[in-house]
Amino acid sequence: MAQPRLLGIIGDPIGHSLSPHMHNTAIEALGLNYLYVAFAVKPRDLAEAVAGMRALGLVGFNITIPHKEQMLALLHHLTDEARIIGAVNTVRCDGKELIGHNTDGIGLLTSLRNDAGFEPAGTRCVILGAGGASRAVTVQLALAGAAAIDLANRTRARAETLAQHVVAQIPGVQVAAHALDDAKLQDVLATADLIVNTTSIGMQSPDDTPLPESLIRSRHLVCDIVYRPLHTRLLREARKRGARALDGLGMLIHQGSAAFEWWTGQPFPVDRVRQSLIEALNGAAR
Ligand code: ATR
Prior knowledge:
The chain contains 11 helices and 12 strands.
């Protein structure tokens, strides 16, 4: 059999990444001759590692923490998403040229549409958190035509900086910043359609939640981008309040799907991969 074509991921640490499992499951299901490999790379070695990926002829690769921003300087071209978000999670090697893309926000958007039937155009969205994940999600919801976006963060100043960035980059979108414990959030949530948690709160400790249960209403679709655990306290309480709840597995799968299809031109076997990831996550929890 011919040598497999190579895909990969670089990050540090990389041992807990589900991406190799996810992409190799897809490759096997489709009967393709590719192999997806994880590489632990320290920040000081990033440029050398990327030059190596190019020299070795990788088709493309993912970038994860802590390299998503530092990677920008090593690329020849950026997609609009990568440029506006200011971070890259996917690279395609086109000959000697490296193209940077960001599929994190696209992953969430596809999950909202495909897994929850939610179309963001014209809606009011509340995003909890103002870090890297929030940046990707906020930019993508703004690009998708959300009418208003409210950012609520523990550190209000960080939400303010992100709001200003998005308004400057995407004209016409309304973005407001709040502190996570601001009483005004109650009024904002009364008319909101979507709540997305982009903080790591439900992951750090499963009994914590970023939002008091009493603020959740049945009109909300509540999405937690955390997928370890799958059933965070925020989502459990959302269901109790009669709201719809969407876990972070869909965002993980669809960001991978967008990258895979961009690299290989093949349709990603979403259902097969979802099944396999649920088994992997349940196995890890045991
Ligand atoms: P990521 O790239 O995963 O978004 P990040 O850039 O470090 O990670 O951002 C983490 C986000 O989770 C931030 O919005 C952070 O709030 P601050 O900006 O105030 O630090 C939020 N966060 C993390 N732990 C939190 C906690 N215990 N309570 C409230 N917010 C928290």
